Structure prediction request, 128 residues.
Amino acid sequence: MAPPATGGSNERTPLLPGGGSSTALHSSSGSSPFGVTPQQLTQMLDPKDPDSLRELGGPDSICKALMVDPKVGLKQREQIGANGQYHSEPFQVRREVFGRNTLPTAHEVTFLQLLVAAYNDRTLSKYN
Prediction:
């Protein structure tokens, strides 16, 4: 049984800096210190688009543009930005470009809401 609709967030909306609206996806300047914008990555992954992956040069090219080792990942204390400048805050440039790596808080459904949804579920009713 699915929990009642909350009308809150849309699971299909990309989690991009600035809200991830479809207008934000198309209004980007196309420039990024990493050579790949968050919008390009989102369009490649949601929905999955192998042609976009090929256009970006494949996984190895994307890892190189993002300055990520595909076997190890990010350096533990990255302090050099994409333009070679030193930053005191680790991952400062990545946060500015891609935003924080956090998920929005989930809406909690109370036991009473689940009980009411189950009571109103016609599949459980003996007298449909």
